[in-house]
Amino acid sequence: QLQLVESGGGLVQPGGSLRLSCAASGFTLDYYAIGWFRQAPGKEREGVSCISASGSGTNYADSVKGRFTISRDNSKNTVYLQMNSLQPEDTAVYYCAAADPSAGCSGYVPNGLVVWGQGTLVTVSS
User: Fold this and answer.
1) Which residues pair with 82 in a beta bridge?
2) Does 19 have pLDDT greater than 90?
3) Structure confidence by residue, pLDDT tens digits, 30-72
4) What is the dihedral sign for C-alpha 89, 90, 95, 99?
5) How confident is the model at residue 101 (pLDDT cuts 50, 70, 90)?
6) Contact 70, 95 (CB under 8 A)
7) Contact 47, 104 (CB under 8 A)
8) Are 9 and 63 in contact (CB under 8 A)?
9) Contact call for residues 94 and 37 (beta carbons, < 8 A)
10) How far is CA 113 from CA 33, 73, 105, 118, in A?
11) Distance (Å, rounded) from C-alpha 66 to C-alpha 93?
12) DSSP state of 47
């Protein structure tokens, strides 16, 4: 069974940092572009960032550019999202998703999504 499991969410003060992890089980991430999405209360899910299968290509939504960094360690079958300078508007459930190996990133959004994680909650509040 193909699964993605997010972790690393929590409560952080404005200006703080968190690192989210997206770990795969049942398959190897080597051939998959991976994207991070988020859904804030009462809002639609939105793309945040995408990293190519090789890790050589990364893209970000304007709202997080310069603050968030996506990376991957294929030896650990894990993708990360380092989030710095967090603001209350970053509060959301964060999801990772894997694109079909024949697809990839279209800007900061992966195409042909085949697997979603269950999400991890990030709350930015003083």
Assistant:
1) 19, 69
2) yes
3) 999 999 999 999 999 999 999 999 999 999 999 999 999 999 9
4) positive
5) confident
6) no
7) no
8) no
9) yes
10) 9, 20, 10, 14
11) 20
12) E
